[in-house]
Amino acid sequence: MTAPALAQADFDTQAKFAILMDHDSGTVIFQKDADLPMEPASMAKLMTVAVVFNEIRNGRLRMTDQFFVSEHAWRTGGATSGGSTMFADLNSKIPVEDLVRSVIIQSGNDAAIVLAEGIAGSEGSFAAMMNELAEEIGLTDSHFTNPTGLPDPNMYVTARDLADLARYLIREFPDYYHYFSEPEMEWNGIKQPNRNSLVELGIGVDGLKTGHTEAAGYGSVISTAEGGRRLVAVLHGLTSMAQRAEEGRKLITWGARAFERVSAYPEGAIVAYASVYGGTSPSVGLVGEGEVALYLPRGSRKCLNAQVNYTGPLMPPVMEGDKIAELRVFCDEQLVQTAPLYAAETVEEGDIVRKATDALKQLALGWM
User: pLDDT digits over 305-318, tens only?
Assistant: First the structure.
């Protein structure tokens, strides 16, 4: 079990899996089994949307393009399937923008399949695109097999990867983010509300996606900019829609209100150094993803200490921007926050003299 990132005397959740993350820095404020594999359910559709937006950005797709509703899409994801649906008509053509809105607002399985077939020819080929983009984003513990999130034993995600995927969507596609907060959508004369009920509660939640299967339970990926910063939360493994909404509301509200922001290191500032074996430099500076800001329980500044964790010594070449380490902040010996650290510069492989010197150093002193 992953240790929670905040002293649990102040907060806990009934979700089996959860994470609360600062959008800008990737700093983890709360986590609960955030790195264990779980069934994504319809939250997998966030990756479907990411592929669509990426295709549009790269000029291979337009929102005005129209895609054909095949019999497979109609039977597997349509009205007769018993799942979330757009109620798309068989053999009709639907603009990409309406399909995207349905996937986000209605969680339409038929809309997701139509997009997959229209872009890649089949769900399988589209899944390959999903996994390729997931690798580019850095979702190292997830694997996608279809665009809908319908159950498949070979499809899995982690709460952390879903949070990072949400951050990618918010950061890279701000012009499309408004779709996630639309209250409802009507198609074929059938009006459906946004399945993320938190959008309508007036607590600042403006996205992103819910999911449910019998085996996995109820989950959601949510975000808010309340409290002066944007937070992203993921919860999964809950027992009902009502519990999903309440636990999501509690987590995101607690994150927005119970913390104060402490600026620790400005953007580009060296947080620590990591040892490099046999490189042109014996160490490499570590920096945060932009500014390293701490979000701490109010009144807890005096209890702080920190550690930098990495597996070393590092072997060259170490490339600028490589994720190297993790900053861990403690309060009274309890982990309260984590933040990723990256190489500030490139360290190339050193000459034979440097390697010999480092070999002697390793034998005599060991490495931290």
Answer: 788 888 878 888 99
